[in-house]
Amino acid sequence: MQRIQDLPAEELKKLYDAELARYDGFVSAGLSINMARGTPCPEQLDLSEELLDIDMSPLHQCEDGDVRNYGILSGIPECRRLFAELCGVGPDNVIIGGCSSLQLMYDYVSQCVTKGPGVPGCAPWGEQNGVKFIAVVPGYDRHFGICEYLGIELVNVPITPEGPDMDAVEELIKDPSVKGMLCVPKYSNPDGVTYSAETVERLAKMTPAAPDFRVIWDNAYCVHDLYGDGDELPNILDVAAKYGHEDNFVVFVSTSKISFPGAGVSAVAGSDANIRSILGRMKYQIISYDKINQLRHVIFFRNLDGITAHMKRHAEILRPKFETVLGTLDRELTWTGAAHWIKPRGGYFISLYVDVGSASRVGELCKKAGLTITRVGATYPYGKDPDDANIRIAPSYPDCDTLKTAAELMCCCVRIAACEELLARV
Amino acid sequence: MQRIQDLPAEELKKLYDAELARYDGFVSAGLSINMARGTPCPEQLDLSEELLDIDMSPLHQCEDGDVRNYGILSGIPECRRLFAELCGVGPDNVIIGGCSSLQLMYDYVSQCVTKGPGVPGCAPWGEQNGVKFIAVVPGYDRHFGICEYLGIELVNVPITPEGPDMDAVEELIKDPSVKGMLCVPKYSNPDGVTYSAETVERLAKMTPAAPDFRVIWDNAYCVHDLYGDGDELPNILDVAAKYGHEDNFVVFVSTSKISFPGAGVSAVAGSDANIRSILGRMKYQIISYDKINQLRHVIFFRNLDGITAHMKRHAEILRPKFETVLGTLDRELTWTGAAHWIKPRGGYFISLYVDVGSASRVGELCKKAGLTITRVGATYPYGKDPDDANIRIAPSYPDCDTLKTAAELMCCCVRIAACEELLARV
Q: Diameter of chain B by CA atoms?
C-alpha cells in the first residue's frame, strides 16, 4: 500500500470519508475508555492478594525490634536487604521510604532546593539563580511537575532508541546552572527505551560544571519485563564508581507496580555521601516509615527471586494487552507512514508519534468518541510538546477487547488527522 | 519536714551521705532503664492487635474506588470523615497523610519556606530574611528540629499552667519576621498543660504583623486522657473563625499513640485556603498515601466513639504508670522544695523542674546509674535549656515496678544535686 501522503487526491478523499464514517460508528457506540495513566488492572492487583491476607499479629519482631513501635529510620534490615538486592547495592546504601517513590524524589529535590545536595561549598539550589534540570523528553509528567513546582527550569533533551541524546546532554552540563537530570533509564516513560550500555557509560563518565549535579535515576520499571529476556540496564552506581562519580546519581524504586500502587514500599539507593545527606534530612522529617508494611512485603516476596517470579505473572497479564495495541498500530498505521512508535519490551507505555502538529487533533477526536488518553503535551515540561506529535498510550488497565476497540479508534483518529492535514494542503 | 535549703549544715551533710549511699545501691544494681521517649509499651500496642488481623483481601472498595490502586490524594472519604470527627471539622477540611504527622508538619513548614503558605503578596519564607518562629518552652524537640534544620530562628516563650505566656506572644507577633508558632495545645509535651479557653481565645484573636503567620497546632494528644473527665480544649478553628483568623492555624493529628507509632494514620486539618494550598503542593509530591491502611483504621475504629473507647484502654495501662512516678515524686521531693512539677491529666510526659543549673547534673547521675532520660536541654530549641532546670520524664514504656525504681533513683539524684549545690555554697 502507498503511504498516506503519496495517495492521489481522489483516494485520499475516499479514505477520509471512510474513516469519518468509521469514526461515527465509534461515536455512536457511546464508548467510555480510560487509557490516561499507567494504572495496573484489578487482575494485577489480585496477584498480591496474599499480601493482604498475612496475619501480622504474631509477627511483631524484625531484626531490630518491634515493627509496631517507633524507630528504625532507614527501614527494617530485612527490607533494606530486599531492596539492596533489587537495586544492586549493599543494604547500607538503601533507605526504605513510604508507599511512594515520587514522594522520595520530591523530598530529595526539595531538600536540594532548601539545603543543597550536601556538596561542601555549594549553596542550596534555592539560593542560586536560574537553576536548571535536563528533562529527557518525552518523559514522565510528575517528574516535570516536581521541578516546575519548585522553580527549577527544565531544558529538553530528546530521547533516542539508545537513551537521551548524549551529545546534547554533554553540551548542557557545561553550564554550571544545570544541576541535574530526570530520567527513567529502563523501559522509559513513555517510550519504553532502555538506556544502552554506551549511554550509561557516557552518563557515568560526565563531569558536569556544577559540582552539585544530581541525576534522579528513577528505576521505576527495573523488573517490569514483558518478555522472558528483559532488557539489561547496567548498574549506574557501579559504572559511576569507576569514575568516582557515584555521588552524581540517586536511584529510586518502588513496589507500586509490583504489589500495590500507593500501598507498597519505596526506596532510595545511593552513595554513602548521598545516603548520609538524605538521612540527615529525614531524621527531622519522620521518625520511621511504616515498618509493618515493610515486614509484610518481606514476608510476601522473600527475595529478588520472589519478586522476579511475581513479575512474570504481571507480564502474563500485560503482554497480551501491549500486543493487542501494538498489533493494531502495526496493522492500521504502519502502511500509512503517518505515525511511528517503538515497540517496548517492558514498562507501562507505548509512545506514539504522529505527524507534527496533529497530536492535539488526535486527542480531541479520541475524547469526542469517549476515549480518554494522557493529555497531549503532558509528556513534555510545562505540558507543551513543541512538535505537538507525541501521544502516550497506557494499555495496562482496560481488558484486551476494550483495548482493541480503543486502539482501532485511535488509529482511525490518526488517519483522520493525517487526511485533514493533507487535504488542507491541497 | 524542712525544705532542703533550710536544713542545718550538719543535717544537710547527713542527708547527702545517706543519698550517696542509696545511690551506690542503685549503681551496683546494674540497672538499664529507658525513659527517654514517649514510646507506647507492648501492652498498649497489643490493644490494636485486631487491626493487624483484619483480612483486607475481600475489602478493596472504598466509596471512591479500589484502595489497592492509585488515586484519592486527600484520603478515602470514610477516613476523612473519621478524622473530621476527631478534629471537629468538616470532611473537606481534612487531608489524610501517611503514618507520620511529623512528616506532615515538616512538609508544611518546608512548603512555607520554598513557596510560602499561600498568602497573596507574600514571598516564600526562604526568600525573606531572618524568619522566626515562637517556640513554647519547654516543648517538643522534633518541632524545634524542623525549624532548626530549615533555618527558622526560634524564640522562646515560656509555658504557664494556662498555656503559653500570652503577653509575651502578643508582644512578639508585632515583629513581621515572626512567622509562626509551634505548640502542643492539649497535654503539652512535656508539661501536660492544656491551653485554657482564655489562652485559646487570645491566640485566635491575635493579628500578627506578618500576614503569612501560621501556628503549627500539633494536637498530638487530643484524645489521650488519663482520667474519665479529660481536659477540654476549645476547637481552635472554630474560635479563630469568629475573628476571621482561621487561616492562621493548621491542625495536625495522628494515630501514632492510638494504634501504632509509625504505622498509623496522620491527618492535617485547616481552613479552606490552607487545605487548598497543601493539596496544591501534595499533588506534586505524591499520588496518594496508603489507602489500604486508611481503610484498615476505619474498619477498626469505625468512628470517634470507637476511638474514645479505645483510648480508655490505653488510659488503664498508662494511669498507674503516671501515678507511680507522680507518687514517688510527691513522697520524695515535695518536702525538699528542690523540685516542682505539674500533675498531667493526659499525654505522655511529666515535666520535672529542678533547681536552676542542676538538671544536667541530675541527668549525669541518672545515666551513670543506668537510667536513660531525655537528654537534658532537648526540651528547648538548639538543645539548650537556659536555666538547665527541666527534665522530661516519659513513663509510658517501662512497667510499674521498673518505673518505681527509676523514679526513686531520679529523686535520689535530684536530692544529691540539691545537696551538692547547697554544700558548695557553705
A: 77
Tell me what pLDDT residue A2 has.
80
In the predicted model, what is the mean pLDDT of residues B129-136? 96
At position A21, the amino acid (one-letter code) is A
Q: Do A70 and B284 touch (CB under 8 A)?
A: no
Q: Is A9 on the interface with B (CB under 8 A)?
A: no
Phi, psi of B134 (to 5 degrees): -85, 130
With an 8 Å Cβ cutoff, is A100 touching chain B? yes
pLDDT above 90 coverage of chain B, percent: 96
Residue of A nearest to B100 (CA): A286
**Residue to test with chain A: of B62, B66, B70, most A Cβ within 10 A:** B70
Q: What is the DSSP string of A384-422?
A: --TTS-EEEE--SSS-HHHHHHHHHHHHHHHHHHHHHHH
Q: How far is A223 from chain B (nearest CA, A)?
A: 19
Which residue of chain B is at minimal alpha-carbon distance from A285? Answer: B103
* Cβ–Cβ under 8 Å, residues B297 and B51: yes
Nearest to B262 among A115, A262, A291 (CB): A291
pLDDT in tens, B224-262: 999 998 999 999 999 999 999 999 999 999 999 999 998
Please judge whether A69 and B106 are an interchain contact, meaning their C-beta atoms are less than 8 angstroms apart.
no
Residue B2: what pLDDT? 80
Peptide bond into B261 cis (omega under 30): no
B348 in the same domain as B277: no
Are both B141 and B92 inside the same structural domain?
A: yes
Q: Does B129 reach chain A within 8 Å, measured CB to CB?
A: no
The answer as to whether B154 is a domain residue is: yes
Residues B414 and B289 in one domain: no
Give the C-alpha separation, B235 to B88, whole Å.
Answer: 7
Locate the chain A residue with the closest alpha carbon to B397.
A69
Tell me if B192 sits within 8 A of B342, measured CB to CB: yes
Residues 6+ apart with CB under 8 A from A187: A193, A194, A221, A224, A231, A344, A345, A346, A347, A348
B38 shares its domain with B186: no
The label of the residue with cell 527534665 reads: B391
Torsion over CA: A189, A195, A200, A203 (sign): negative
Contact B142 A52 (CB under 8 A): no
A residues 42-61 near B, CB within 8 Å?
A: 42, 45, 48-50, 52-53, 55-57, 60
B350 strand-pairing partners:
B393
pLDDT per residue over A239-259, tens digit each?
A: 999 999 999 999 999 999 999
Whether residue A167 lies within 8 A of chain B, CB to CB, comes out as: no
Any idea what the CATH number is for the domain that residue B100 is in? 3.40.640.10
Both B166 and B33 in one domain: the answer is no
Whether residues A70 and B37 touch (CB distance < 8 A) is answered with yes
| Block residue for cell numbers 495522628 | B254
> pLDDT for A66-123, tens place per residue?
999 999 999 999 999 999 999 999 999 999 999 999 999 999 999 999 999 999 999 9
Q: Is B413 on the interface with A (CB under 8 A)?
A: no
- Alpha carbon distances (Å) from B107 to A102, A252, B28, B111, B144: 14, 20, 47, 6, 14
Tell me which residues of chain B, numbers 355 to 384, contact chain A at a CB-CB cutoff of 8 Å: none
Average pLDDT over residues B60-82: 96
Q: How confident is the model at residue A354 (pLDDT cuts 50, 70, 90)?
A: very high
Task: Indicate if B331 and B284 belong to the same structural domain.
Answer: no
